[in-house]
Amino acid sequence: MPVHTLNAALATHRLAEFDAIIDARTEDEFALDHVPGAINWPTLNNAERIAVGTMYKQVSPFEARKRGAAISARNIAAHIDREVLDKPREWKPLLYCWRGGNRSGALATILSAIGFHVTLLEGGYKAWRAALVQDLADLPRGLAYRVVCGPTGSGKTRLLHALAAQGAQVLDLEALACHRSSVLGHIPGQAQPSQKRFDTLIWDALRTFDPTRVVYVESESKKVGNVRVPDALMDAMRASPCIDLRLGDEERVALLLEDYDFFVKDPEAFSERLQALTELRGKETVSRWVAQVHDGQVPGVVLDLLRLHYDPTYGQSIARNFSQFARALPCELRDRSPQALAEAARALIASETPATAHA
C-alpha cells in the first residue's frame, strides 16, 4: 500500500482523522514539543542519534548511514512488536520526524508494506511548527473573551476553576505555563514548558472552543514566567470586556498562604525569592521582610507585598493595557470559599448575552 502525504497546514485541521499520531524523533525532541496527541516511537534515541551524528562527522557519512540503518531497523522492529501486532488492517497512523525524511520515512515504509493506511506529514515537525505559528496569528481573533481582572490574591485562578466546573469555556494560561505569573510565581518541582510547547498547548486549547460562546481568561502580562503569550492572543485579550474581581485584604492574604503554602513551609525558599525585589523595593525593606519571614510573621509580609508592591503595579498595568477595564463588570467575593466562587461563576455565566458572546 502506498504511503500518503499530508500538508502541514491541512494537518492542523485533520488530526482527528487518524488513529495514532507517531513522532519518530528522539525523546528530547519530543519533550521540547510535539503534535497534540502524539506518541513517541524514536527511530534513534537520544544517545543513538548523537553517536550516529558523531560518526557522520568524524568517520564518514556512508559509515554513519550504515550504522544508523542498523539501529533504526532494530528500534522499528521493537516498536512494531510492542505496539502494532494487535492493530487491525484499518488502523490509520500519521507519522512525522524533524523534516519528514529518513526517520519517519523508514517507519512509514515498513508499516505501509504490512498493509496499513499510512500518512506522512510533509516537512515533518518543522513544517508543522510553521503552520501552527501561522494559525496562532489568526485563531485567537475568532473568539470572544471575558478577561478576569483583579489584584493579586483576589482569586482569579480559583474563579476560572469555578467557571470551568460549571461548563464555561476557560483558557488557564498559568496552568499551561506551570507558573503563577509573578516574581514569586515559580512552582517548586515543576519545570515550565518550552516556548514551542506553550504555543502548542495554547493552540490546542483554542481550537476546541466554540466561537459562539465566551472564553474566560485571566489578565496576564505578556510573559508568564519564562514563556510568552502569543501576540495575537494578547492583543485580543487586551481589547476584550473585563471583569473586576475583588476580595478583602484579610481573605486575600489567607488565600495566598493557601496557594503558596510551600513558602510557608520553607522560609529559606521564600527569603530567596524575596531577594528578586531588592532593586524595586530596596535592600532595607527586603531585609526586613526576610527577618519577618524567619520570625514566623509570614502573613504580615504577604500583606506588605500586596499593598506596597503587587497592588500598585497591578493597578497601573491593568489601566494601561486593558482598554475596556474602565467599564469592567464588578464581581465582589464575600470570601474565598468554594461556595462564594461558585455563586460568582453562576452569576457571570448568567450575565452572558448574545452581544457579549460576539463582542
Give a nutshell description of this structure.
The chain has helices at residues 8-11, 27-32, 46-58, 61-84, 102-114, 124-138, 156-165, 173-177, 195-206, 231-238, 249-259, 261-265, 267-274, 278-281, 283-294, 298-321, 338-351, 354-357; strands at residues 4-6, 20-23, 39-40, 93-96, 119-121, 144-149, 169-171, 214-218, 223-224, 227-228, 242-246, 329-332.
Structural commentary:
Helix 2 (27-32) links the parallel strand 2 (20-23) and strand 3. The chain folds into two domains: 4-134, Rhodanese-like domain (Oxidized Rhodanese, domain 1); 143-357, 3-Layer(aba) Sandwich (Rossmann fold). Helix content is 53%, strand content 12%. The protein has a five-stranded parallel β-sheet with strand order 1-5-4-2-3. The radius of gyration is 25 Å and the shape is globular. The longest helix is centred in the N-terminal third of the chain and has 24 residues, at 61-84. Helix 13 (267-274) runs antiparallel to helix 15. It is built from 18 helices and twelve strands. The protein is of the alpha/beta class.
List keywords for this structure.
2 domains, alpha/beta, 359 residues, Rossmann fold, five-stranded parallel sheet, Oxidized Rhodanese, domain 1
Quickly count the helices.
18
What is the total domain count?
2
Major sheet characteristics: 5 strands, parallel
- Bin the strand percentage: 5-15%
Architecture per CATH nomenclature, i.e. the level-2 architecture of the largest domain: 3-Layer(aba) Sandwich
Structural class: alpha/beta
**Overall mean confidence score, pLDDT:** 93
- State the name of the first-level CATH class of the largest domain: Alpha Beta
The H/E string reads EHEHEHHEHEHEHEHHEEEHEHHHHHHEHH
Question: Quick one: overall form?
Answer: globular
CATH topology of the largest domain: Rossmann fold
Roughly how many Å apart are the termini? 50 Å
What's the total count of β strands? 12
Reading side by side through the largest sheet, how are the strands ordered? 1-5-4-2-3
